[in-house]
């Protein structure tokens, strides 16, 4: 239970949700959009989040979409990680999402909640960063479609009253060779030490990271170094570290030195698995 009371609303359309948010703001309330609610419950109990009005997006058809439209896969923001894992329409996303929390939690955690949440790992965004996906965002100024790599900088940049409706990915990325590796220092379902997702397209290997720094990221500079076939795997990896955002995390899950050690070994494994063609 939360240590405070709140009003609950479940709009049936994008327009209704936005109008409701604006009305509640005019009433000097602190509305919050809601998908699965796991983070609100977790952080609310610790008094890290406060809201007196919850707007549940699960009644909006567009937020529940899941399937192909022409040559694109449409994923609604309120789809649970478990549903994505079971359907496997986006294999890299399924592989990455199935390592988030535990089985029971993934029945509640939504893809939008994981991407937009305050807990900094947000691993589910990695496959979308690698696939040049687009996001559909709705708010008081209307609905907009943006490349995720242009609006996700440390977090998904949403204006006041906006919410994520859908993520759209071109079908060609779904069949690309890929791998997702999560490393934990502690128990199987504990918070990760780090996660690295990788996808190979037209001979070039892309990489996205979570848990290395205080936010998920994809670095083109690191990718260029990691794809330099004139160098050995070790030299590629060590030279790519020059472009890591700083600081590297140093917390209860692992020191920054240990993270770099694990990251080096993880990247070496990924390059070998996905076909990095090591220099002789």
UniProtKB/TrEMBL annotation:
Domain FAD-binding PCMH-type: 1-174
Key words of the record: FAD, Flavoprotein, Oxidoreductase
Gene Ontology molecular-function annotations: FAD binding; oxidoreductase activity
InterPro entries in UniProt: CO_DH_flav_C_dom_sf, Diverse_Substr_Oxidored, FAD-bd_PCMH, FAD-bd_PCMH-like_sf, FAD-bd_PCMH_sub1, FAD-bd_PCMH_sub2, Mopterin_DH_FAD-bd
The keyword Flavoprotein is assigned to this record: yes
The keyword Oxidoreductase appears for this protein: yes
Name the UniProt record assigns to this protein: FAD binding domain-containing protein
Organism in which the protein naturally occurs: Peribacillus simplex
């Amino acid at each position: 239970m939360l240590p405070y009371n709140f009003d609950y609303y479940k709009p049936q359309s994008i327009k209704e949700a936005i109008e409701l948010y604006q009305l509640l703001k005019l009433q000097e309330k602190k509305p919050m959009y809601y998908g699965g609610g796991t983070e609100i419950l977790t952080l609310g109990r610790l008094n890290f989040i406060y809201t007196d009005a919850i707007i549940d997006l699960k009644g909006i058809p567009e937020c529940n979409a899941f399937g192909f439209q022409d040559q694109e896969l449409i994923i609604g923001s309120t789809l649970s990680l478990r549903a994505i894992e079971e359907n496997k329409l986006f294999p890299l996303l399924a592989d990455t999402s199935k390592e988030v929390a535990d089985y029971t939690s993934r029945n509640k955690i939504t893809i939008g909640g994981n991407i937009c949440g305050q807990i900094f790992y947000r691993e589910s965004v990695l496959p979308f960063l690698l696939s040049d996906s687009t996001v559909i965002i709705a708010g008081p100024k209307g609905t907009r479609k943006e490349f995720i790599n242009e609006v996700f900088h440390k977090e998904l940049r949403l204006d006041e009253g906006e919410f994520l409706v859908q993520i759209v990915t071109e079908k060609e990325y779904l069949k690309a060779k890929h791998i997702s590796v999560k490393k934990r220092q502690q128990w199987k379902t504990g918070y990760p030490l780090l996660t690295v997702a990788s996808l190979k397209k037209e001979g070039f290997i892309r990489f996205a990271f979570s848990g290395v720094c205080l936010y998920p990221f994809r670095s083109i500079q690191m990718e260029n170094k990691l794809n330099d076939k004139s160098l050995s795997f070790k030299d590629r990896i060590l030279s790519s570290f020059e472009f890591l955002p700083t600081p590297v995390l140093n917390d209860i899950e692992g020191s920054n030195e240990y993270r770099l050690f694990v990251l080096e070994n993880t990247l070496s494994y990924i390059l070998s698995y996905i076909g990095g063609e090591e220099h002789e």
